[in-house]
Amino acid sequence: MSLDPNQPEEEDPMASDSSVQTSEPRPAAPAGSAHDATIDLTGVLHEQARAAESASSVVFDVAGLSVYYGAFQAVRDVTLSIAWNEITAFIGPSGCGKTTVLRCFNRMNDLIETARVEGSLRYHGVDLYDPKVNPVEVRRRIGMVFQKPNPFPKSIFDNVAYGPRLSGVRSRAELEDVVEEALRSAALWDEVKDRLKRSALGLSGGQQQRLCIARAIAVKPEVILMDEPCSALDPVATLRIEQLMQELKADYTIIIVTHNMQQAARVSDRTAFFTVDVDTSTGDRTGELIEYDRTERIFSQPADTRTEDYVTGRFG
Amino acid sequence: MQTIADPEAGPERSALSATNGSVPDTAFRVLALASGLLVLVILALIAITTTQKAWPVLSKHQLDYFFSTDWRPNEQHFGILGFVWGTVVASTIGIVLAVPTSIGIALFATEVAPRRMRRTITTVMDLLASVPSVVFGLVGFLVLKPRLQNWYQALGRWCEGIPILHNVFGTGSSGTSLLTAGIVLAIMITPIITSVTREVFDTVPRNDKEGALALGATRSEMITGVVLPHSSGGMAGAVMLGLGRAKGETIAVTLLIGGVSNPQITVNILGPGDAMPSAIARNLQEASGDFRAALIGLGVTLFVITMLINLASRRIVGVFDQRLKGAS
Prior knowledge:
heterodimer, A: Rossmann fold, ten-stranded mixed beta sheet
């Protein structure tokens, strides 16, 4: 596993070298924007190779994104791109704004009255915060799985059928097909096929979370946002979800917020490291993106010393 | 110093503190048990004493007392069905008007209104809930009644000749009627139902609501799909609370229901009638003997009806919750 603590030690001269070059708080450029001159050479080569094979693979293009709650700036100037059919992990200490940023991707922050977003967040080139964009439409294409499993107090079938019913599917046969397909994709079908009419609340925590994933899949989104999906689960259930994410990667783009670094290292292709910047005069805590790169680089030879301190456990 | 050094002091002290801890604990348990039993004792005493006072009439008329609409105190004949009818109709009108209004206000206050407005609505509703019922009665009598009288006459004329409607909205109203009482009851119980439903809606987990919205539900789909099902039990409780208040409401209904001396079962809600509590309040002072017993019997009947409705609603809520959670 790339989390091996020896690896960064070996590459130490390189790591410190690149951290000089990228000392400004801008993240290393992700796929599709390899022209950013400040990233180190190996990175550029690597990214160019990636860009060549998937030039049109950018799902989200985020530039200068800041989130405010009233006058308080919760997240400052985030710039990154999310690649198609990859798992992107957001890691960082508590209060670093990783969940806040995640909730921008399906406009969940709209629900907080005082929340305000600046900068641009483009989904296939369309600004999600354009006044003409309907947030309901956004959320049908960009699904979300929450920290705490939140099945509705309905039957298992009705939980999964909830989304398709919203989009107007009425035929029982069609619903049954969609529900079975979604439950199969979420690796839950075999466990629940005989009790689809039973309450979803009778499932275990891990099953409930997979049900929530099935429920999200049933609306056929392109992207699934996961907000610490395993934080309420035991290790076995966590492993099931992680395996599931690997299977889902073929069809979906996944962004996962996690405070479990091992999980990020295990499941993700790319990792964005956020941290919190405390204003010494006002005490305001503002989250910012420190570094964004391929996961193995973040965990083996991070460009920024703050990233290195975090992933090696020196800061936490 | 000496006690700390003394090896026997340790166990002795812990033994002492154990008794100290259990005395208040036992006292608390006894007190709690006594308070719990007191509720049952009071309930039983109310039932026994009132039934006892009403017994002469109940034993004389038997079922006729409950199922006859013949109420002629001068001839010593007492049938209360007309009063039961008046209470049921006025309360039902009150509930039918108040429940949708209350749910609407509560949804607005919890899901739609901007935060600052929410607090204002809540405060105003809580203030309204604390207005004494006689004030509502006076407002109904002085403000509503004269206006309603004209509207009732227009409505009655308009419905003439239309089947069913001309029965429900009959003519010849003076403004005091079952409908007027129902309307004022609705105004009175709306703040109560609103207040309770609003609190129930507030308990719907944010997580559940976000779950629906994240699946692409609009706000109204989220409300019908998550908020209302989650709140069904609490809403039923709120309606029961409102119904209880409506059935027992005396003074406002007395002023507005018309107060006929021998109410009949009629579907004409524009006509006058009388309700059980109003009849008691209006007559108890001059009543004696069997008349007095018959009035107390009205109270007993109201008490029993209330209990039956509460039991039934509890059953309904239970069944509904089961079905909702898919555990059938």
